Amino acid sequence: MRLLLLLTLPLVADDLHQKAFVFDAHIHMINRQFSKGGDIGERVSDGQVDLPRAKEGGIDAMFFTLFVEEQYYPARQETRHVLRLLDLARRQVAANKDKIEFAYSAADVTRIAKTGRIAAVLDLEGGFDMDGDLGVLRELYHSGFRVMQLPAHNWANNFAESCCSKSLFGGLNAHGKDVVREMQRLGILINVAHASEQTVRDVLAVSTRPIMATHTGLKKFNNLPRTMSDELLRELAAKGGVIGFHSGCEFHHRPMFDYRTAQAGKAFWDTTAVEKQPKDMTILEIDGLVKNHHPMVGITAPDAVRCTIDQWLAPVEAAIQIAGEDHVALGSDLDGGPTFPLGIRDVRDFPKLTEAMQRRGWSEGRIRKFLGGNVMRVFGAATDAR
């Protein structure tokens, strides 16, 4: 009888986190190595993630994000930089094949995770380099990318407007709609993080498969250009889409955002300095500009302005009330600049998120959906149903 009782008790938080399938929708893993050297398989003292710490944090799969910094845009060096990052990513993954493997489909993710290794899905942050060229898009697909962010970070490209750019054509233009159709024909998950609201609506009008906003928050908690309105979240969910929640307090907690902005003297989406860059800079000169940006970690802030884990979960719970538990996920943006909630040092402490969910009365099913099930569903719908 005692054994039967033990088997029916809910899993304690740490056990649940480790046994759940954790699929993080946005992790930067290569930019630090490109700028500073090193190996993703080695534990390091800086940054927020490496493979040893990722395993300790229960990560089973990730969107393995390659980020083309905006400094490469004015001189139009971004496509070349994508190829350099891709080359490094392949070499790093090959050097750590006992810990990680590239996945190109949901079936691959499942297979790799069963071996105890991390499944890495190549994700391109920023579509600026495509410039709307469908041939380049197809080559990026054949190079292994299965997730791509449609707008160019905080800039508009020539087919999709960013949340933070001046309006050029009102969302997604005619060629942008062709880009969306081709991405879905190929089997690439469309990421609308950093997109303007109109761009997201235009994508939803054209798309025939679910899309995702991988790392964001809700406007009702912090009214930023990057966060999502309740109405838009409902529209995203109505077509099967998923919103991934950024791990930084600044997205969900106004005191932290105001403190960070005051320390920097500008909001974190301000691209004024980059826009003034000389357009004839060499790629090596640009490398020098961005070298000290990595790893991108949040600023040190007083406890009084950082959010608690429970405050961090509040927008997730609000999104569940708006759209349902099938449409929320973790999109941490590790090494992409977040300042974590109190009690979180880095990815190793992600089980504390599960502990808080459990304490707040989340069912095991809801927790598993948030930690990875919903990302797996939307990724499979985009890549496998061809």
Describe the structure.
With 386 residues, the protein is an alpha/beta fold. It has one domain (22-383): Metal-dependent hydrolases (TIM Barrel), CATH 3.20.20.140. The chain contains 16 helices and nine strands. Strand 4, helix 7 and strand 5 form a beta-alpha-beta unit. The radius of gyration is 20 Å and the shape is globular.
For the secondary structure, the number of strands is 9
CATH architecture: Alpha-Beta Barrel
Total helical elements: 16
Give the low-confidence spans. Answer: 1-9
How would you sum up the major sheet? 6 strands, parallel
Structural class by secondary-structure content: alpha/beta
CATH topology-level name? TIM Barrel
Question: Any key phrases for this structure?
Answer:
386 residues, alpha/beta, TIM Barrel, six-stranded parallel β-sheet, three-stranded parallel β-sheet, 9 strands, disordered N terminus
In short:
By secondary structure, the protein is α/β, with parallel strands linked by helices.
Topology:
Blueprint (H helix, E strand, L loop, with lengths): L1 H7 L4 H7 L2 E7 L2 H6 L14 H6 L2 E9 L10 H18 L4 E3 L3 H9 L3 E8 L8 H9 L4 E3 L24 H13 L2 E3 L5 H10 L5 E5 L13 H9 L3 E4 L8 H11 L7 H4 L7 H8 L18 H15 L4 E3 L20 H9 L4 H20 L3
Parallel strand pairs: 1-2, 2-4, 3-4, 4-5, 5-6, 7-8, 8-9
Helix pairs in contact: 2-15, 7-8
